[in-house]
Amino acid sequence: MDLLLVILQNFYVIIAIKMAVGLGLSMGTVPVMVWMERKVSARFQFRRGPNRVGPFGLFQLIADSVKLLMKEDFLPRNTDRLIFLAAPIMAFLPGVLSFALIPIGSSGGNDIVGAGGVMAISYISMGLLVMMAVSSVAAYGIAFAGWASNNQFSLLGGIRSSAQLISYEIVMGMSIIALLMMTGTLNMSEIVQQQAQPLFGGIWLIPSWNIIRQPLTFILFMVAAFAETNRAPFDLPEAEQELVGGYHTEYTGMRYAWFMNGEYAAMFTMSAILTTLFLGGWTFPGLEFLIPHLPWYLTALLTFGIFFAKVAFLVFMFMWVRWTLPRFRWDQLMKLGWNTLIPLGLVNIVGTALFLEYVASNFGFGG
Amino acid sequence: MYSYEQEVVQRDENTVHMNVGPSHPSMHGTLRVKMEVKGERIVKTEQEIGYLHTGFEKLGEYRSYNQFITLTDRLNYFSPLSNNIGFALACEELLGITVPRRCQVIRTILAELSRIADHSLCVGAMTMDLGAFSSILWTFVEREKLYDVFEAVTGTRLTTSYTRVGGLAFDLPADFEKRVLGIMDSMEETLDKLRDSFYKNRIFLDRVEGIGVISKEQVLSFGLTGPMARASGIEYDLRKFRPYMVYNEIKFNVPVYSQGDTLSRYKMRIDEMAESILIVRQALKLLEPGPINYQDQKRTLPDKTSTYRDMESLIHHFKLVMPGDDHGIHPPLTDLYSSTEAPNGELGFHLVSDGSSTPYRVRIRPPSFINYPILSTLLPGCMIADLVAILGSFNIIAGELDR
What we know:
heterodimer, A: globular, B: mainly alpha, Cytochrome-c3 Hydrogenase, chain B, three-stranded antiparallel β-sheet, 8 strands
């Protein structure tokens, strides 16, 4: 037993376990989300969705993955070979990487998982900034794929994607500034801890989740998150009906699958970030009374379950929107970003500052 | 002669040549649009047809009148019954016969049902082209129910071939009225759902409002008909203008919009479906028992059971069906143009008869062929995304483009 503890508390072993968990979570949820998307869209359209392979069609994902793996690795003529081959990986990695920053649960103060009982793969004080930096790399993957494919449809998809990501990154950054003024920290675990407190220091059962403290920020961030993940109604880079497949028109087999994995991993990570920043992460009203009576592993499971349920709901939101709304046109998307969302973001920053300066400090609540 | 290289050399250096179709997700059928784009904006377009050449008109010169009905199925394959009825009416006008009342009522009902089937697909496909995928399956559900009814009535779902010169292939099944009324109710719900989801949807409105505006003058100079003409303020509907079948006994409105943009064409089709539902309900009340075929065995096929049991009918069947100049229907030596209001506009047949059992010439005026060319006039200045919106609202069926 002692030996086991020694091994478990070895730095490298912890790193290895964390990596396995992180990669497993973000990669393992991708096929489940693909299955979920197919089931959800089927429900929206009076269909049944996959139901032939395995229970509830769950093994359909395995069949699909095998099919994609077995496909010919096709390289079209006159492509920029190196960039063409690197692009899928570049588009895929950021989604998985930024998942490392998210606290997925708590072991209730027990230090078994390191970092003061916070279950996060990396516990860094600059969490939010790293997230912003990493997630913007995904744009390069898509832009490179569009450029290297030597196809007008792909090129247009790539251009659309870079323009879109640049504009909406600003929106996201602005919404985060307002959030930071409220929280005063960039560390995601601390942001979660703050949200566990009751609202304005008194109203019990209403948690001080940032969605309540900063509703406008939440909306701005949500819209930007849809745009960052290239999901409908912001799926212009792939816009099937206009650009065939957009940036991944020329990709087949597993290379195409990396783009798709990337999209779903990004969607999962974005939902996790939204949960962490605005929906209180792994916390839930009333949980602080329960945790002291539970062993650490049950606490860990419970908090992880709460976190995962919130993420699943947000993922469902992503799907809900995708199968309901039409797509923007390119110029309308730009107009929405620059003429509506960025001014709103500025107003939000000023409003938050005024609130903190005159209201919160005088009445003793807020940040 | 057209040369791709030449065109590439001649074009402006800042534009990119883009080829959309004939295999492209939103070029329903085999349409092709060659575009010159500057960034996302379209500078010049050129349409090309001929990828689904069927040769119906030439085939018609070697087929008897009844045989040609099977070819009309393939014209607009989303509403084959309308084409069947249009051709049968043309042949009957050529022969100078009037079909029994029950036949006329049945044809009216089926023509409206196929209008609903056609429009529902167009409305769904258009929003799908705009990225809202789910609505096409909402309308598909209704269309499938209608196709089930078509199957019960005609024996097939798509290639119905239901009409004959002087009547119909068979009478209606027993539960026809009940089933159709049920579908009409659920169709109304679906239409409400479409109105709820899209009429106030900001993204949808931004995509279609004021896009692809066709003026009244353009409608007249391009000869557009059907929903496209009525969405631009031209109140031209053959069902009102020159009533055929039993349309003059039925009360219905012809919806007209004045804007002429993509949104009005979308609303137009939804309103037309609502009117069609009213027409079907009224026409079902007119349905009374009686013969379905014109009673003249020299020109209309005898009943199948009497063909098997009655010698007289067997001989007539033989004389009508066998090829050769001694057999078949012999219309008088004349030519005429007869047209009906098909879902997409005026569907006309110009028949030239030389007195033999096959027509001398079958000229078809399909609505899609006439409605299609205006696209190139509308597109310059639009974005690439507008192409799919505008084309989706036209509802061009490739089967009608190249006869």
